[in-house]
Amino acid sequence: MNKTDLINNISSKSGLAKKDVENVLNGFLGEITDALASGDKVQLIGFGTFETRKRAGRTGRNPQTGNTIEIPESNVPAFKAGNKLKEAVN
């Protein structure tokens, strides 16, 4: 399912216009992005938690030249599923 499919499904189930659903979904995703960018986590009880995790720096290798390169540490987004979501999938 992609974003368009999600918008269409929510629109048909809720009776809202597709444009309104798209605005709400874009706002929702924007708020999660802003929270993660500022170092906060977003916790949706029963669904899951969006957070950032630190990835340690490491030494890598360029596959074309074989030269070693230093890969700096970075923050990566992560999602941990909640209990209700885990139960629904199983």
Automatic annotation (TrEMBL):
PANTHER family: DNA-BINDING PROTEIN HU (PTHR33175), DNA-BINDING PROTEIN HU-BETA (PTHR33175:SF3). It comes from Paenibacillus lemnae. Keywords: DNA condensation, DNA-binding. The keyword Metal-binding does not apply. It comes from the Bacteria. The keyword Magnesium does not apply. One of its GO terms (molecular function) is structural constituent of chromatin. GO terms for biological process: chromosome condensation; DNA replication initiation; gene expression. Belongs to the bacterial histone-like protein family. This is HU family DNA-binding protein. Coiled coil: none annotated.
